[in-house]
Amino acid sequence: MTTGSDAVEQAAQERPAEEAGRAPDTDTTDEAVVAEHPKQPDFAQLWVCGFLGLLGALVIVDAARLGGFAASNDPIGPKPVPIILGILLFVVAAFYALDVVRGGHGEDEGANAGQHFDWKTIAALCGVFIANALLIDWLGWVISGSILFWGSAIVLGSRKYVLALAIAVVLALGTFYGFAIGLGLGLPAGVLQGIL
Amino acid sequence: MENLNALLDGFSAILTPGNLLIALLGVTIGTAVGMLPGLGTAMAIALLLPITYGMEPTQAFIMFGGIFYGGMYGGSTTAILLNTPGQSSSVVTVLEGFKMARAGRGGQALATAAIGSFVAGTIATIALVFVTPITVEFAIGLGAPDYFAIMVMALVATASVLGSSRIRGFASLLFGLVVGTIGIDAVTGQQRLTYGVPELANGIEIVTVAVGAFAVGEALWLAARRRNGTDEIIPVGRVWMGKSDWRRSWGPWLRGSALGFPFGAVPAGGAEVPTFLSYVTERRLSKHKDEFGKGAIEGVAGPEAANNASAAGTLVPMLALGLPCNATAAVMLAAFQTYGIQPGPLLFEEQSALVWTLIAGLFVGNAMLLVLNMPLIPMWVKLLRIPKPYLFAGILFFASMGAYATSGQAFELYILLALGLVGLGMRRFGIPMLPMIVGVILGPMAERQARMSLQLSGGDLSGLIGGPVSWVIYGVIAVIALWPLVSWLRRRSRAAKDRELVAA
Q1: What transmembrane ranges does the database entry give (chain A) (predicted)?
Q2: Structural domains of chain A, count
Q3: pLDDT tens column, A137-190
Q4: A138 and A78, same structural domain?
Q5: Helices B298-313 & B91-100, crossing angle to 10 degrees?
Q6: Contact: A4, B280; criterion CB under 8 Å
Q7: Which residues are bridge partners to B192 per DSSP?
């Protein structure tokens, strides 16, 4: 087993080197990938602990509201499980925080820790995704799905606007005819009802 | 004998032109999705689940059989050619496989992986045919407390054995358990953790969790790092193996299969441990020790076989106990449930024809892969050349389509995105995903068994400990839980001894 875990470590160490050797991308800020991950503890991990603690609180608050009546066919009711989960969440959050302070990190030696995080692109991608969710019932899958594909491709770095749009429309029409009409899947036609 | 007859019936159900076509379709799409970086077998099934909604259960399960092996096969191809293990079970394959590809032996690496997967898949599926009925017989005697104990063991083991950090494993597990709790409580009908949102009353589907965390999460992860363009892909020549490759491969195939299947069949055994064990064994036994680390074919043949055999092994607890222990089995179980079929000891009695068709489908899919894909590998590799923006735009497109089509509500898309953000966080912080997936599906099942046990005992906690089976299992759980303490003590005593030696 020791040799096995050595192998993993070896693989984990090699991967950043591979990335560093890769040709830089056209318009991205990838220097952070090359940068050595910091020796000091990765305190950003404390966000995870906070999230776990918050989740624990939400679970316990909700469980407290449940009617804890015990029937003969269900002596413990729905309450104990969420309460146990909530307590365990607090415990794990605490130990997690302890681990972080001691310099613990996740898989791959925390190799992702030092990397640049492109919040703008994430937000844009989420925006495209939400647009689809908002528009799907009104505009229908063919239009909203096309927007989803085209928008995601552009956000993720494609600069071939027309090609991406063509692929998007073909995919959306293809899936609509194939799945909704062919296989009876519930995809909405939306404003194009009657045209498609 | 009875089983063999049932299996033959399964084969006769498959060997019609229409069903073979479905199997072919499953194998093809499974390979295609499995090859996409960052996805894997589980994702192949989860994303393709909506396609099967319009089908009869038999056809759907023939397709799952094909997708199952196709997805695994696709995953190993990506691992060898891209140096990115799509799933943790491919980590070991990457070690020697990528080096082989670099050294111009990519064709041989892919060939030994493909043939090894076929050999291991066949052996493991045969073992499945014989082991599953035995497991069923054992399982019929189990009561609710025993099931509860087995499920707790599976949960604790996936969280603590796999991955490098226990605390992160448990964090992931707890998140999964909380997600599994959302919705109407089956016994009392009270809503839990819905916070008044009516769409949450039916709970969150395991498939949504898997697709959200893996597929949407991977797309967001790509967005976070904006590593656009395509990865370096090593060209593959002809996929073939020379005489010496065969001589060096067959031993590792067989040993890998033998290691993989039992680990897969044990709840929470996983594919990671047997692939590592296989790698270590082959390195020790090899006559070409110097080649290890530079691209030794044994280091691809053994772990790949172990990986496939263990995947087939996980179907044993899934079918016989209704206990999914990896993401693929969890998604398969969800697929069963969409057809109103509950895996477990009764499955073989109630849905005998269906189960044996599924198993026959595994054999057929496995054979098809070998015949069709060996010559087609160079074509598959072209898939990897699709620029990342289109690839992930397509993944988001199909993930959204599946989520909407399943529920008919746009709300499902918001859940998908929320879980995608969780998946993004888990990638950033190196938190394993498997415990979460297993927690979502096993948590509610374990709660049901626990409440059933307590119902039998009238609320007395002793009801949770049933017969000898649960005693043994709680013993195993204690060993798993206390193991770090033991190894710490051992390390300490060794360190103390070293100090004494130095002092002397």
Answers
A1: 43-61, 81-98, 122-150, 162-187
A2: 2
A3: 999 999 999 999 999 999 998 889 999 999 999 999 998 888 777 777 778 888
A4: no
A5: 150
A6: yes
A7: B183
